[in-house]
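Contributing new records

If you add data, match the layout below exactly. Sequence lines come first and carry their own label; structure lines follow with theirs. Keep one chain per record. Anything else will be rejected by the validation script.
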Amino acid sequence: MFSQDLDGLLSASSNQLTSAQLAAMNNFSIEIDTVYTDIGIVGGSDLTGYNTYRLYVATDDTADVVNAIYGNIGLPLYLSTTGNFFQDPLGAITPDGINPFLYDISSSLIYDSWLTIGIDSVPVDSLGQGTLTVIESSNSNWQDDFESGNSFFLNDLAGGGIFQLPSMTNGTAGADKRVLIAQLTTNGEITGTIQTQVFLLGDNQENTLYLSLCVNDVDSDGDGICDGDEVVGCQDSLACNFDVLATDNDLLLCNFITDSLCEECVDGVIELIDENNNDICDSNDIAGCTDSLACNYDDTATVNDGSCELTSCAGCTDDSACNFDTDASIDDGSCTFPAADNLDCDGNCLNDADSDSICDEDEITGCTNAAACNYSADATDDDGSCTFADAGLDCDGNCLNDADSDGTCDEDEITGCTDAAACNY
């Protein structure tokens, strides 16, 4: 990030400090001066309710040098306002392009918000001052955020910030033992965390400190992150929901994959590996025919492998049916049955003792002789009960032939004299 000490900045939190450095670092802090209050209407800008503050790094010694203010993924720089930062159209991220004659062009430029190291206008060569270098990675837009009047972070992996070359005098503390790092004009309350690179007594070889300094805030856990800037999350890099922005670790929030064959991490969430969306882990799927109507249906299969056979085994599966199919495993509704319980599938009687093609259960006994007096047209089996009329008589005992209607059948008539008075009666 910063050409002269990239590795040092990115690993600042792991530096082993000498006792002298530890003693000195306790004397560094952020001091805030209020420069203007409730500014009001200035030129074309309404700054009513806006105040201008200047932020300084208070140092341990007059020779201490603030070489950089920076931020990265492990040590974020953060400046926040509950309102907006005023940004003049002629202003920029740093003030090293501001000449006093510009105040005649824009009277509100004097209230512009900017970041700096030790200067508030064009650097003075005769004093050993120089132009500041601004770093912003391709993944960051902190300058746009700030120049739009918003709060901003420097917290990406590559990091960014503002620094001076070691040969410059911009960041030397001087008699008041402090170095200007920002002017902020806002209508809100300011909080933040400033990461600083400091050369104790100006020594950039053996006495470099990396300090996290809080703006209107405290650092109760001493981790170099101001309380208002802490981000609670999972800091275990093996967890699915590892949060690179987390500054306070909460192991209870960490989620870990326990079965790498069945679980995967998607956007910080553990999800089942289930490409076919059947709620079964893909590695536990069983391939087979899942169509219950198929001949080869497999009730243990969880994913259809296209092997289903739907026609070769369809048929009648009722073993009491006339067309029962021993090879059928799926009933297709084609079963046929005898027309009656006492018939076989060909319509023949199951019981026909007299072989008259009338089932025993359907036989009707009676007289089957049409000449008999008790002949029964419904009878199918003769039971020997036939009765017949006497000769010359019908079944009711009446004469079949009685020409003179005298009640005596013609066959039984005896001719002779019927007069009782006659000699030959």
